[in-house]
Structures are given as structure tokens and as C-alpha cells.
């Protein structure tokens, strides 16, 4: 985080390790034991699919900034580490982030709500959401993502199950 912050000071205090207030109503019930069990059984995502997403979004390891939103214990975050100049994992559950920190100690992780991201406008090239889109207020989330994604930025919603709502359209 510190190295990336030095190259992009507009990110402010988020990259200095300060956390925003946790706003999820039920996340306080998640215990550290639950977070570890969740990670043990959750599994990762297809490396082929993740490579395809990174290619389609034209992610450049020297210049791109990626947000893994609702990162939980960091399944996607860990799988795509090194793909961009800066990779950030954000979740609203502190126990999940604590587990992510144990598994990904070099990661840039922060506690925040997806509908109110502590990020500057036009700062992200790609946002990934792995198996968590159902936790968000979609109109508020999409409005916030429009704010923080750069022009031609991408949102990749990952799921292991068919979506009953069909495809999500452009923001």
C-alpha cells in the first residue's frame, strides 16, 4: 500500500492503513473462527476466467489499479495479486479482513461499505466482486462504481452459479 500510495497520493488515508467505519448491520456477528472456516471451504476461482477478465479489461501491471470489492478472506485478491500496479481488497467485515491479512500479509486491505467507497473519482481500472453481488443495494453500488471507475473501466462479477437475473448491463 505504501509503495503504491507514493505513486498516487490522491488515494489519501486509505492507503496509510486507516479504516472507515464498518456499516454492515450483520457483519458484527462474524467471528474469527467463522472467517477461517469460510476460507477453508470457499475455494478459489478459475485461473483461466481471471486471466480472461484481466486481459479483457486491459490490465497493465505497471499502471492499472484494481479493487476486489467484498473481498472477504481475499480469495480473488490473492489470485490476482501482481496483476496490477495497485490491488486493493475492501470488505465491510473486520473478521474476514483479519483472515485475509493472515493469508495475504502484503495486501492492501481496508474496511468500507461498497456503496460508499473511500476512493477518489475515476481511480479504478477494474472492480471484481466474487460471489457477493447479492449483499449490495445495486442502484447505490452501481452509482458508486460509476464514480470510482475510470472511463472504460470494468466491473467483473464472479459467480460459480447461474444468475437468475441474467446478465448485468453496462453501468
Structure notes:
It is a single chain. This protein has about 170 residues and is of the alpha/beta class. About 30% of the residues lie in helices and about 20% in strands. The protein has helices at about 1-5, 30-40, 45-55, 75-80, 95-105, 140-150; strands spanning about 65-70, 85-90, 110, 125-130, 150-160. A five-stranded parallel beta sheet has the order 3-2-1-4-5. Helix 2 (about 30-40) packs across helix 5 (about 95-105). The radius of gyration is 15 Å and the shape is globular. Residues about 1-30 have low confidence and may be disordered.
Name its key features:
171 residues; five-stranded parallel sheet; 6 helices; globular; disordered N terminus
Mean pLDDT: 78
Strand order of the largest sheet: 3-2-1-4-5
Please give the radius of gyration in angstroms.
15 Å
Number of alpha- plus pi-helical segments: 6
Our estimate of the beta-strand percent is 15-25%
Helicity, as a percent range = 25-40%
Q: How would you summarize what this structure contains?
A:
This protein is of the alpha/beta class and 171 residues long. It has helices at residues 2-7, 32-42, 47-56, 75-79, 94-103, 138-148; strands at 65-69, 86-91, 108-111, 124-130, 149-158.
